Amino acid sequence: MFVSRFLCRFSFCGSRPARLRVHRSSPVWSACVVSSYSSQPPSKDVYLRYSFGRPVLSVRLPAGQKCRFTLTPMLTTVGDLLRDIIAKDPEVRTATLLNGDGQRISSCTFMETVLNKDFQLVINDVTHNVHSLGQGSSHEHVLGLDDMKYVVHLLHSALTLPQQQHIKHTELMIRQEQLKQQLQPLETVRVKLAQEAESRASVLGWVGLAYLSLQGGFLAYLTWYVFAWDVMEPVTYFITYTTSMMFFGYYILTKQDFICPKARDRQFLHFFHQKASQQRFNVQKYNELKDELAKVEGDLSRLRSAIRHPVDQTQSQSAT
To answer: Which of 277, 283, 17, 318 is nearest to 158 (CA)?
Structure first.
């Protein structure tokens, strides 16, 4: 009896540390315990990210399929999301959203409020933790009155822009035709006056050349055939000095150097306005019509370019 009690005590004492050692060092058992009591799902089951500026909630449903739910934070409510999840998978019996404290979120709450903090998605009593992307990361904000007016203006412009462009194009075409009709008789008279002024300016140039030729020939005749060079030298000096005084007088009167192209243009304009006043040609009205026609043609060119490239036109208006 003493031996059997001793063996029993020995076996009890020897088996206690072995049992404790197995309990502490069994990694398989500890992993099973953690997995059975943890509510953290694998990261591939439920996660939240942004796609094309909208938050997208990816969920692996009980049936095994992975669904993506695109959210509009300012329009989508919790009830809308839960109804979409239940409609996607018939195996989903219950779906609930909980906040970080484990309290149930009302179905009337907008997702804008939910997405600002971490929350929990419970599907068929299985809890999935969803990490928020941060405060204010939804890229949306409540529009004020001025912002709403601006958005409505942009929408109205985008909808009516093609029609307005075609109406404006028609108006500019009509105005261009009217200006051309008004300019046609004036243009005929202007061309005639320009030809006469051009002829008189050319004749004046040839007269100047003839005068210089005759002057040089006459001085040569006097030098070699009539008088000696001693007599003609002072004469040529005074002629040269007089010519210089004439050029200086031209500068004082016109505030321009005597350059042949500029002098010719000046004489052309002088003859043109002289003839225009004689024939009562309204130069000011002609210039105004020409300026307006150039402006209309420029507007037509820009408008046609905008019609051919509507995307560039919209971007430029937005930047402005």
So the answer is: 318
Q: How far apart are CA 14 and CA 293, in angstroms?
A: 113
Whole-model pTM? 0.41
Name every residue whose Cβ is closer than 8 Å to that of residue 110 and which is 6 or more positions away in sequence: 73, 74, 75, 76, 77, 78
Tokens of 69: 């739910």
CA distance 120 to 102: 8
pLDDT tens digits, 155-205: 776 777 777 778 888 888 899 899 989 888 888 888 888 888 888 888 888
> Is the separation of the CB atoms in 275 and 200 below 8 Å?
no
> CA 114 from chain center: how many Å?
35
Beta-carbon neighbour count of residue 43 at 10 Å?
A: 9
Give 226's DSSP letter: I
Tokens 């004036």 label which residue?
186
Mutual angle of helices 145-221 and 260-278, in 10-degree steps: 110
Give me the DSSP letters along 193-224. Answer: HHHHHHHHHHHHHHHHHHHHHHHHHHHHHIII
